[in-house]
Amino acid sequence: MRELKAYYRRNLPHWHPSGTAIFLTWNLKGSLPRSVRERLVATQALLEREAAKADETSDQRKARHSKRLFAVVDQILDMAESGPLWLKEERVASMIESTLLNRYSELYALWAYVVMANHVHAFLQPKPAAGSGSSFVPLKDITKRLKGYTALEANRILNSTGQTFWQQESFDHWARDENEFYRIIAYVENNPVKAGLAGRPEEWRWSSAHERVRRGWSEIRPLT
Q1: Confidence band (pLDDT; 50, 70, 90) for 76?
Q2: What is the mean pLDDT of residues 48-68?
Q3: Considering its fold, how many domains does the chain have in total?
Q4: Domain of 128, in residue numbers
């Protein structure tokens, strides 16, 4: 039987088949200026009005649009030229890493992650929901728990209880085949190198590349 695909919209489209590996990005509140958010919404509207490419399926069209929008966001986040940079605080970064690896590990297989100054990348695959047969833990439940808990803890560490920590909406993209699966892992782990923060992926302390070296692993396998 064909997998059900979840597609819903808020300010941006969210589309992912149940149980597939998802590339997630969430960022600090205020790290994307209003002008950028407006640009994303306008770009999405333009993409939806453009003529379909020859031989392009609906799935391929959605994937192309998603990548275009994400590229705009990630470039701005990597530059970190505006907004808060609270994830540079070592205690905050360590707490987020520990949450990804330990607190909710029963909900997903974590393939890759990186904690940057103002955003987090995580590549994870929801696990089967307890007692539900063949259904998987909903992605929205995973993101709600991860973002909710880390926001509370980060505000406690920073003595800013009650402040909005994360931008409400996250960005997501699912891996469509094996090649894309490994490209996403490489993209996530190379993020600090691309941003000029490390010479090699494993040199960045708060990343899956560093964690695999710490565990003595040479191959790619899930961290949870």
Answers
A1: low
A2: 67
A3: 1
A4: 21-29+85-215
CATH number for the domain including 161? Answer: 3.30.70.1290
120 pLDDT higher than 90: yes
Q: What is the pTM of this model?
A: 0.77
Contact 137, 187 (CB under 8 A): no
The string over 28-46, giving b where at least 16 C-beta atoms fall within 10 Å of a residue's C-beta and e elsewhere, is: bbebbeeeeeebbeeebee
Q: What is the CA 210 to chain-centroid distance, rounded? A: 18
Asked whether residue 105 is assigned to any structural domain, the reply reads yes
Q: Is residue 209 part of a domain?
A: yes
Other Cβ atoms less than 10 A from the Cβ of 167: the count is 20
Report yes or no on 120 lying in a domain. yes
Helix (H, G, I), strand (E, B) or coil at 172: strand
For tokens 């990597």, the residue is 78
Query: Looking at residue 72, what is its pLDDT?
Result: 63
Q: Closest by alpha carbon to 62, among 52, 73, 72, 71?
A: 52
Residue type at 189 in one-letter notation = E
Q: Does the residue 78 lie in any domain? A: no
| Angle at the Cα of 138 from the Cα atoms of 41 and 22, rounded to 5 degrees | 60
Contact assessment for residue 155 and residue 165, using Cβ atoms and an 8 Å cutoff: yes
**Cβ(40)–Cβ(67) under 8 Å?**
no
Give just the sign of the alpha carbon dihedral 154, 104, 206, 64.
negative
